[in-house]
Structure formats: C-alpha cells, structure tokens
C-alpha cells in the first residue's frame, strides 16, 4: 500500500511539474507577443494555474487593412481548458486610425472583445461597448454612444450577424442579419429587427450637412415601406439594408460610419 502511495505521489508531482512548465512556456510566448505590440516592458502575466491573464499597458499595433490601434490598457484572458477562446477587456480609452482620415479616439465605461479561434482563423467574434465618449467634433448622432453589442461569425460567402444592438443618440436598433462578401472588399446584406428614432437620426444627418433633404426624404420613405409599427411601442420592426465598404457603414440611408 505504501509503495502505491509513493508511486501515486510521484505521478502527481510529475504531472504538476509538467503543467507548471507548460503554463510558463505559454507565459513566455505571450510576453513575446506583447513585445511585438511594443509593450514588453508594460506586461504582466497572471492566472496560474488555470488560465493566462495578460495585463498590458500602452500597446500599439497594426491591424489588417492598415489600421493602427493604440490602447491605454487591456487585460487578455485565455483559459487553459479552452485555448481557442480569448476574452479581451479594454480599459479607459483607445485610438484607431488608418492614415486616410482623422483618428477615432474614444473613452468608455467598458469595452470587451470575445474571440473564438480555430487554428489561424476565427470562428466567432463578440464585441461589447458601453458608455463610450467620442473625442473631437461630434458626429450627427452625438459624442456619446450608450451601447454597442455585436456577435459575428464567418461563413463561406460572408458573415452572419447573430446580434447587432446599438443605442446612439436617438437611434435604437436591435437586429440580426447576414452580410455577403462582394468584389472590392465590400459587404452587403440586410438586418432584421426593431428600429427606434430612425427618422430623428435622418433629421440630424440633414442638419449636420451629411445628406441633403431629398436623400433623407427618400430614405424615410424607404424605411416606412420596409418596416411597420409595433403595437404599444414607439418602435418599428422590419428589414433594412446594411453595407460596409471599408470606409462607410450604411444602414438604410444612414451612414453610421463615414471615413471618406
């Protein structure tokens, strides 16, 4: 019996040692990755033994498409039992620029990114942003973005929007839909759900000189034809077109993002 206990103890110690070596190997790989972001001297790796929790301060990196992302700080969590999943918590602020127009600078109450990976590709992306304040000249919908929730997964010919919720100024949308990839890095599709404050948003775009009155009138007519009133609510439900071409994100007749 004593011999069995000794053997069991040795096996446990060997397994614990191997696990510790694996965790520290992963830690060193993560520190090397942080160095590639220019943040090697501002990174700490915690979470032993069940996950890697990486705290990074002041990281700057280049994203696909030539975008430059600067973060005040971030916490990246990678569970050891689900290494394909990554959760990123962003703190304080970020700056995003592509060199073609003014940078997007914002501070926020919370920003989080959930990413499921498979090999070198991703299979699901989730984004949560709340109480964001956009710096600089106010966009037509205002400097304060109350809420943005996005759940996206790729498919053979585009992307499935499992959820797209937005509360920005007068505009409130709760939708889901699909985007099809087209030549020229364009994505076109539609979202189905509920919309509130769409006409008020159009009025603000006219007042800001982003669209003319005729285009706003046509967009309002199209919105009225493709949606219907919801009984007992100040909302309309229906389906609107959604397009992204790398510089503009257009919902119906509203250019929610316009970096031309």
What does the model show?
It is a single chain. The protein folds into two domains: 1-136, no CATH class; 170-260, no CATH class. It is 23% helix and 53% strand. It contains three helices and 15 strands. It has helices at 2-36, 198-207, 213-226, and strands at 43-46, 51-63, 67-79, 85-97, 104-107, 110-118, 121-134, 144-155, 158-168, 171-182, 186-196, 227-229, 236-244, 248-251, 254-258. The protein has a 15-stranded antiparallel beta sheet that branches. Strand 13 and strand 14 form a beta hairpin. Helix 2 packs antiparallel against helix 3. The protein starts with a helix and ends with a strand. The model has no long low-confidence stretch (mean pLDDT 81).
> What Rg, in angstroms, do the CA atoms define?
23 Å
The total domain count is: 2
Output the helix-strand order.
HEEEEEEEEEEEHHEEEE
Q: Which word captures the global form? A: elongated
Low-confidence stretches: none
The number of helices is 3
Largest sheet: 15 strands, antiparallel
What structural class do the secondary elements suggest?
Answer: alpha+beta
- Total strands: 15
Mean pLDDT: 81
What is the topology?
Elements: H1 2-36, E1 43-46, E2 51-63, E3 67-79, E4 85-97, E5 104-107, E6 110-118, E7 121-134, E8 144-155, E9 158-168, E10 171-182, E11 186-196, H2 198-207, H3 213-226, E12 227-229, E13 236-244, E14 248-251, E15 254-258
């Amino acid at each position: 019996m004593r011999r069995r206990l000794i053997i069991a103890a040795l096996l446990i110690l060997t397994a614990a040692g191997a696990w510790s070596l694996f965790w520290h190997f992963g830690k060193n790989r993560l520190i090397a990755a942080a160095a590639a972001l220019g943040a090697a001297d501002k990174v700490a790796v915690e979470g032993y033994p069940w996950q890697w929790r990486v705290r990074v301060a002041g990281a700057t990196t280049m994203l696909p498409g030539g975008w430059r992302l600067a973060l005040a700080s971030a916490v990246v969590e990678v569970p050891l039992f689900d290494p394909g999943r990554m959760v990123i918590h962003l703190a304080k602020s970020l700056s995003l620029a592509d060199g073609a127009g003014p940078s997007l600078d914002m501070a926020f109450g919370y920003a989080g990114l959930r990413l499921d990976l498979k090999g070198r590709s991703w299979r699901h992306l989730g984004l949560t942003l709340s109480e964001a304040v956009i710096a600089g000249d106010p966009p037509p919908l205002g400097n304060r973005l109350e809420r943005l929730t996005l759940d996206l997964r790729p498919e053979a010919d585009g992307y499935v929007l499992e959820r797209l919720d937005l509360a920005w100024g007068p505009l409130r949308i709760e939708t889901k839909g699909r985007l099809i990839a087209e030549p020229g890095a364009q994505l076109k599709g539609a979202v189905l759900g509920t919309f509130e404050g769409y006409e008020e948003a159009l009025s603000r775009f006219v007042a800001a000189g982003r669209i003319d009155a005729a285009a706003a009138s046509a967009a309002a007519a199209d919105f009225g034809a493709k949606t219907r009133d919801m009984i007992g609510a100040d909302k309309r439900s229906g389906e609107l077109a959604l397009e992204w071409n790398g510089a503009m994100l257009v919902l119906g007749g509203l250019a929610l993002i316009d970096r031309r």
